[in-house]
Structures are given as C-alpha cells and as structure tokens.
Amino acid sequence: MKELLSQEMLVLFAILAIGTAVGQIAYRGISIGPAGVLFVALLLGHFGLRIPSVVTELGLLLFVYAVGLEAAPGFFRTFKKHGIQYLTIALMTIVGSAIATILVAIIFSLPLDLAIGLFNGSLTCTPALAATLDSIGRSGFGSPESVTVGYGVSYPFSMIGTVILIQFLPRLLRKNIGKEEEKWKLEQRTDAPPLEVAHFLLTNKNLDRKEMHDITSRHLSSAVISRIYRSGKMFAASPDFVFNLNDIVVAVGPQEELEKTKLVIGEETQPPASSMGDVVSIAAEVTSTEVAGKKLAELQVWELYGVVVTRIKRYGIEINPTGRVTLELGDLIIIVGSKSSAELFTKMVQSDRKQSEETNMLPYLLGFVMGIIAGAIPIHLPSGIDLRFGSAGGVFIMSLIIGHFGKIGRFRLYVPPAAKNLTRSLGLMLFLAGVGTNAGGKFIGVIESYGIKLLLAGIGVTAAAWIIAIILMNTFMKMNFLAMIGALSACMTNPPGIAASKQMTVTSLPTISYASVYPAALIFKIVMAQILVELFLRM
Residue 219 sits in which domain range? Predict the structure, then answer.
C-alpha cells in the first residue's frame, strides 16, 4: 500500500475520481460539484499525501485560459456597457475586505503577516499571495511562512463556503432562475436584435425592371434580400436579377432594418402558398482556414457563387451578414441559392472539416507563453510598489484578448467547444487537488498552534467580502441574479464558484460576468495585498 501511495499520478487521479463522485452527491437538489475534489484533497492531504506544485499551477492556467476563451466573445461588449459597474463591485469588495483584515488582526491580536495571509486566502487569490511573498522578501517584513499559514487556513473555508453560498443564494434572496434567464434574454434581444424574415410585395414603380445590385449598392438597409417569388416560382437573389412589379421579395435582418426595406420595396405581405424552383437554404459551418478571417465582401459571394448569406450564428448569437462582417472558424452560416451553387459554396466553406474538430496548437500554446511572460512583467507604481499579475492573471488577460480577436498575428485560433469544456473541467480539478492536499497538511497543525480564533478571523474576512458584494449588487445595482453570482465568484477569484454558477443556468451570463469582473478583482487584490504589507510596515 505504501508503494502505491508513493505513486504521485495514482494519488492525483484517485483524488480526481473520488472527488468527482463526492461532488455529484446531491441533497434536495444541492451538490458541492467540483468542490468535492477539494474536500477529498483536504482529507488526504492531512494524512501526508501531496500533489506536485507544478500540477497545481498547470491546472489553474488551463482553467483560466479556457474561461477566458469562452467568455471573450461577450466580454468586451458587456464590459463596454457595464464597465464602471464592474470596476465598482471589484474595488468596493476588495477595499472592504482589506478593512476587515485590519479589524480582525486588531480584535484577535494576530500577527500582521498572518493577517495578510488570511486576506489572500479569504479571497482565494494565489497571485496575490505570490505578490505578498515577493513584497515581504523585498521589504524584510514578517515571515513568509506565517503568510502561507494564514492563507492555508482561510482558503478552504472561502473556497467551499462560496460554492455552498452560491447554491443557497437563490433561496436566500428569493430569486427565480427561470425569470432571471428571461430577463437576460430580453436584454440580449435589445442589444443584439434577432434576425427576422419578412415578405414584401414590390409596389414601388421606381424598382420595376431594376437589377438587384441597383438597390443593394445604395445601402438603404442592411437587411439581406435572399429570394424572390414570381408567378409561383422562387428565384435566388443574384446580383443581376431583374425585378418586376408584384414580385414577392424575401428579406432577412433586424426588425429596424426590415422597416427600412419596407419603405423601399412596398407593403409587407404573406408568403406564397407554393414555391417551385431550384432554390435551397443550406446551413454550413466555417471550417476552411482560407475563408476564416475574410470579410463577406472579400469573398464575393454573389459575384462568384451566385448565393446569398442570410444569417451568421456565432457562439449562439445571430449576426446580420453585412459585407463588413468577418467570418471566423466555427461560424454557422445560412446560404440561399440554387442547389448546385449553394452546394459549391458550402464545399468551399467546409473544405477542411478537420478544423472544426481540432485545436490549432501553435497559437493555443503561444497564448500561454505570452500570458506567462505578461504576468511576470513588473508594473512600477508611484508609491514604489512593483505590481505583477502573476502567471494566472497574465494568461487570463491574454486569453480574453486572443479569444476576442481570434488570432495571434497571422495564426488563427479555434478551439472546439468540447475541447474548451474538457480543458476547463480538468484544469479546475487539477488545481483543487493541489491546493487541497497542500492546505490539508497544514490545517490541523495551524489550528493547534493559533487556536480557533485564526479560523474565525478568516471566516470574518470572507463573510465581509460576501456581504459587501451581495448588498452592493443586489440592493444598490439591482443586477440580474445570474450576473451577480458570476461577479461574486470573480470577486472571490473562486473557480469552483463559477463552475457552480454555470450548473445553475443554461445561459452564459455567469461566465461573462465572471470574466468582466475577474481582471479588475485580480488586479485590485494584487495591489491591495502589497499595500497592506507597506501599511503594516508603518504600524
């Protein structure tokens, strides 16, 4: 048995398997999810089992990279709209937690270096811990071991407590998840109106005998004309198609743009009962690297293929297919045209089917390299403090940038959804297994040395962060509950928290909110941890 337990990989995967099984146990619909791995790791860590630190850091990097890539498409749009709100949430929560740290240090007569460790652990922020240890090393203040002990004591409660709190929060705040999802979907429809189909009877005499390009070249509306009905037959909307009065014109676009089309063509009418003709509608996924990265106008879809792109779907969001839209790998496009033309264009778009099933590893790995380098670069503040984001912070910020632009230089990055899910889940479990075994080995000894007051102090700082964030978001900002639990997880930089949040809804709102708050929360924690060191130096 001793020989088996010395096999680090065996111990690691046993913790992952048992922890996953424990996390799936539900009571009245509530389970601890990925935190089950942390519970098992804490228990086995107490008995001396360990996971290599490199595995822990690798898991954290994989997790934050996957979260950043997943959230990037909606992050910049959401942050542009709610940026001040998210910055306020992060700043107020971190400042309030720092004040709570000072108070518990005074109330419980704790050493100041131990108190800073509590601050880092209560907010579950490993980069802040690293920044604290670096600052202490440069200043000579306190003991790095005491900081680590404080972190190890408060971290498990904050990590587990946040997950449990998030799952109980709907009942505590009397929130209905279904209603919150509907509110967000309504907001999404307002921000990015869905594409609709309308049929117009051509009554504008100025368009009689005019060719299609005579109308579209004037850019009177961004709605796309996809087909035309005439005398019971259906025709594709090719550039040289000649209109006749009483044609029924089919257009696709946002309602506002369809209203403009109505003013140009004529009154809206019912679709015809029958439609003969060699016109089809095909859905095709963009998998060709030759197509990805090009604007629709560059592809000359009309001129070269005689088809019309009527819709583009990306990450579940419909995009109006104007000529300025750039296609990306994984986009789903709806094509209308003659059967032969549509099939020819589809074949070109899907010329490399493997692209939709595989990750382009070069830009994927370059993202890690650039993120780790960025996290190690010191930012010199006026007060003399050197700020570093750390590997996790740098990789997360880089993943948001890469995920938004979809490329690094000339290398385009596409990660299939299944690969993102696997990377996120596996990374999170590796991270929890590592921190759990490390904290489990110190937990009992720390409690015996410093007493229960140390644990209570850590609980106090964690609870202060919870209360400040929830009151601010729920009472003052009236945030959507799904955005609130994502933001709360980000304020606590708590990966299991966002995992628990994602299990509560089919929408991506918690992830988008998490990604919007996380960078600010991470930066503020790193800065505040170093400010506390400087402050305690002067006390």
Answer: 192-356
